[in-house]
Design brief:
Helices cover 76% and strands 0% of the residues. It is built from 14 helices and no strands. α12 packs across α13. The longest helix has 36 residues. It is globular, with a radius of gyration of 20 Å. The two termini are 16 Å apart.
Length: 340
């Protein structure tokens, strides 16, 4: 773990530099053979043929930007949950928010729910958003009803996760082969439908949430010292937990509703950041966001090179990368809970 504040700031700058490098690498990766120099010439000097500019400006830059904002959003949400629940297993996925979004997308694809009012992609996003917010509300309501402990909070989230997965399976049972293919593609997670308006929506939500949590970084750090100490400092934990849970719900819902289910980012990135940086949330929060963006950018690059000429589902890539880290958290702890 880095001890000095100078070392932590330097590490943050290194992550920022790595994020830029991977952003450019992601833009240069894909079926169309264009190197980094060609990409930079098209972006900054407006060189290149019409088709090349369309590929770079209309496809590759939106995909890379989407990887950054979605990775940062999911990682920030995971960091906040892990802090509030004092549990390294806490993440938007483990609370059932992502599976609820999958159910919302599925009912739109199969039953055309909401398609009479808006375009199909918008309807999928809206229903995924509404279902994920509903799942968040259910988790918080059940945990508040009996004043659930952090451990019970996670268990309630897992129960909600399995509930929506069961409902999703029921919808898949009634789906036609064409609809089932659409559901499967959405559940795998994909950045291929990234557009600038979608990026703007996710970015706006991330920036508002990030500014809020950075203003309250000292409160989050105090909570890691123990709830009793935090309350002694005058922190209303119940009210603050409600605000943080709302921020987490919005970050996750808005990100997932546009790209599908992308798991493990909310567990891996915050956990690694915490091991390196420690509990100072002034540095931990931006580091978690940068590392989440880096992991998703790297996953995006891998998804393009696994099958030449095609894009492998990015959700599978993040799952394969996340499973070893998930097992590491479980197996190499002195207790089931990593932190004391």
């Amino acid at each position: 773990m880095i001890k000095s504040i100078q070392g932590k700031v330097l590490f943050t700058l290194v992550l920022f530099f790595v994020c830029i490098v991977l952003f450019v690498a992601d833009m240069a990766t894909g079926p169309a053979d264009m190197g980094v120099l060609k990409i930079l010439q098209i972006v900054f000097h407006r060189h290149g043929e019409g088709n090349e500019r369309i590929i770079v400006m209309g496809i590759r830059i939106p995909v890379a930007l989407m990887a950054v904002v979605v990775g940062a959003s999911l990682s920030l949400a995971g960091c906040l949950l892990q802090t509030m629940l004092n549990n390294p297993m806490a993440s938007p996925y483990s609370l059932g928010i992502s599976s609820a979004a999958g159910f919302g997308a599925a009912i739109t694809i199969v039953f055309s729910f909401g398609l009479s009012f808006v375009d199909k992609d918008i309807a999928i996003a809206l229903n995924a958003l509404l279902c994920s917010l509903a799942a968040s509300g259910v988790v918080y309501a059940l945990s508040s009803w009996k004043q659930a402990s952090p451990e019970a909070f996670i268990l309630i989230g897992i129960a909600v996760l399995f509930t929506f997965q069961s409902l999703l399976s029921a919808v898949e049972y009634y789906a036609s082969p064409e609809d089932l293919q659409g559901i499967t593609f959405w559940l795998f997670g994909s950045l291929s439908k990234a557009t600038y308006p979608k990026i703007a929506i996710i970015s706006s939500m991330f920036l508002v949430s990030f500014c809020f949590v950075m203003r309250n970084a000292w409160v989050l750090t105090a909570i890691r010292l123990g709830e009793a100490r935090a309350e002694a400092l005058g922190i209303n934990l119940k009210y603050f937990r409600l605000k943080i849970f709302f921020v987490v719900s919005m970050l996750t819902s808005v990100a997932v509703c546009f790209v599908g289910i992308i798991g493990f980012i909310g567990i891996i990135a915050p956990h690694i950041s915490r091991l390196i940086i420690g509990e100072d949330h002034r540095i931990l929060l931006p580091n978690s966001a940068f590392l989440g963006a880096i992991i998703l950018l790297l996953s995006s690059i891998i998804s393009k090179v696994i099958l030449p000429g095609a894009v492998f589902p990015i959700g599978i890539v993040t799952a394969v990368a996340g499973i070893p880290m998930f097992l590491f958290i479980i197996l190499f702890n002195r207790k089931t809970r990593l932190w004391h």
